[in-house]
# Entry
Amino acid sequence: MSANGIKPSADERVMAAIAHGLVIVVYGLGAVGAVVMWLLQKEKSRYVAFQALQAAVYQLVGLLVQLIGWGCWGCLYGLSFIPMIANAQKYKDAPPPVFLISLGLMVLPLGLMGLWILYGLWGARRAFQGRDFRYMVLGRMLERYLGQEGETND
# Structure
C-alpha cells in the first residue's frame, strides 16, 4: 500500500520493482535507469516516482561506497608489494604475511557489494508486492526531504 493509502497497480509495482532491481547493473548504470524511471513517472505515479528516486539514490550511494572500499583495498594491496620489491631475494619462495592478509581482505568490499545488491533486490521484491518500501535511513531522509519540498511549494 502506498503512503496515500492507495494500492499501486500491477504496472506501478512492476516499474518500482525494476527500479530497485537495477541494482544488479554495474558501473552506476542501474542508477541511471532508476533516474530515468523517476523522471518518466514523477508526474504520473507517486509510488513509482518515490521508489525509483529512492532506488537511484541508494544505488549512487552504493557506487560511491564501493569506489571508496575498492580504492582503500587497492592501496593496501599495492602497499603489500613493497616488502617483496624491497627484498625480492627474501620473498622469492613465499610472499610476506602482509601480502596474504591484504589479499584476504578482498572479501570485505566483495561482501559489501553482495549485501548491497541483496538489499536492493529485497526492495524490488517488496515493491513488486505493492508494499511501501523504505531503505533504512535513506528512505526516511528522502521522505522528509520531499515532504519539506512539497510544503515550501504550497
